[in-house]
Fold this sequence. Notes:
The protein is α+β, with helices and mostly antiparallel strands and 552 residues long. The protein contains 25 helices and 15 strands.
Amino acid sequence: xxxxxxxxxAAIMIFSLAACAKGGGTETTxxxxxxxxxxxxxxxxxxxxxxxxxxxxWEKDTSPxxxxxxxxxxxxxxxxxDSLSTKHITEKTGVNINIVTPTGDVSEELNLMMISxxxxxxxxxxxxxxCYNTLYEQGYTYALNELADQYDPYFWKVVDGSVVAWxxxxxxxxxxxxxxxxxxxxxxxxxxxxxxxxxxxxxxxYEDMGSxxxxxxxxxxxxxxTLKNEYATYKGVDITPFYAQGGSGYGLTxxxxxxxxxxxxxxxxxxxxxxxxxxxxxxxxxxQAYQEGLIGIDYLVDSDDQVTEKSNNGAYFCMLREWxxxxxxxxxxxxxxxxxxxxxxxxxPANSNGDAPLIFPGSLDGWMSTxxxxxxxxxxxxxxxxxxxxxxxxQKDIFLGVEGETYEVVDGxxxxxxxxxxxxxxxxxxxxxxxxxxxxxxxxxxxVIVDQWRPASPYYITAMSDWADKxxxxxxxxxxxxxxxxxxxxxxxxxxxxxxxxxxxxxxxTAASDEEFDKILSDFLAARDSYGYEKVVSYEQNLLDARKAxxx
Length: 552
């Protein structure tokens, strides 16, 4: 009998693992542990009888409660409760948070939590994770609209209608709320676009070279030739000629394509950006640069620590890199013994017509989205906490802190004190850990709200960010995250294609000749078709058409 029970339990665990690992299913099942249902009912009965659309639910119950918040980013290093902002929020709402982050693969860890019924109360996750769809398609998370209607109708007053429409699934439910969701109209009106893609050069070195035009293949190559012959070492620093963020899969693919204004669609149909002639010409330009020894493959092999060290020392000459990741480096360089060694954005690689780039902006997709799991101890308090955090009051508390201590109201406008701004610019780590303000806790950040309070950036930041805002393709958000995810046939095909392409790009750049380059590219395109490229394009076309119809 014991052996039989053991076999049955093992079979159940295997079946459960297979079910939760599959992200493309359509059947929704409840994953909430049965033994917790009675406790949840007891915790939320009072909330059901006192709900009101006129006041947020969190104000009615500020008793102490602990919640666990999974942030799907292994690099996120901040805790809750030590900083001024989080202490203030816990004192106000009663909610204390334990932030947990993955130690390995995000989806693998969440899969195990699903199986064991130990999902955290709140989950912030990027849509690119394979387990993203699984969370709601297989019933592991609550529909926020149902929780809001039942426990906190005030939720609908703090979430943007266009964001709700964009993130509502085909079953009519809203399972998560994104951070940093931007609409095209708002970007056009405010000039704040959330665009971060830039082509950066080290200012003093670039200007010493005569500020050459690097927008054409020949200009790019000639500049690197001058660098190699005359500036290989500059002010005591060995210069690495080039860096592409994200290597083959990003920096030299969609990022470069955006600079070249490669269209996403043509005559309403999804466009094959990889086969674009200007893009191919620029990949051949990088091949030529590698052949001449003008660039290496550092961008493929350097660790994050090596990239940070080189950036902070001004060791890169030029970079296809998001300016947001260079803020700390520029602060260090601007205050160094070579204060003009910080990085500036210039017009980078362009297509043969010299068209303006299509720099990717913010979008209604946002960045990461937050769910409430069905393992949540108290879903009523959880939705109330989300409502608070999404409200202008919550955004002010997490961004500005405490009035009179970290911010003041000047001419009717809240703003950080001069002391806080100085600390933020001079010692961002202390600013984040001790005070937890501005962008420290970004998981539910609403940039539409907080950007009105954001301190003016110093010159070494605007030298990068202004270019990105100016060149942002504000209507480009509709093309974000078109690729299928999860475990569907289309998603599997897309994954195989992307993985192979990331292998192919280094082969193209290190090819011995243009003829070898052409052969490698031709073989890839044939392989791409065999992987199911048509399925991927069909999926993307249907999704794009649906998005367009949503706002017509």
